[in-house]
Specification:
With 109 residues, the chain is mainly β. It is 0% helix and 52% strand. β7 and β8 form a beta hairpin. The protein is globular, with a radius of gyration of 14 Å.
Length: 109
Amino acid sequence: MRLPNRMMPHGGLVAYEVATGQTGRGKAVSAPVVPERANIQERRRLVKGSAAEVVSNATVWLDPEHNVPVGSKVTIWRGTPRERVTEVLQTAYWEQGPGLPEHVELLCT
C-alpha cells in the first residue's frame, strides 16, 4: 500500500541518480530518474554512522519501488530557485504491516 497523495505533494521536484561505482573521474551514476510522487522535508539533524557523524539537511520520501542506495545523487526542489544537489547518507524502507502504507526514506546532505 502506498502513502496517500496528500502526503506526497512534491512530485517532479525530486530527481535521483543511482551510484553505480567508481571511475577514474570519480563516482559513476545512472541516468536521472524523476519520481511522480515525493515528499521533501528540509531540516537539519545529526546522522550517526559507523565511521562519523554527519548533518543531514533534507529527508525525501519516495514510493517503495524506488531503490536509491547510499552515495547516490539527489536533486531536490528541481526546477525552482531553491534547487540543489545532495547525496544520500542513509536510506530506509518503511513497511508498517498488512494494509498500512510503505515508503522509502532518504536522509540527504
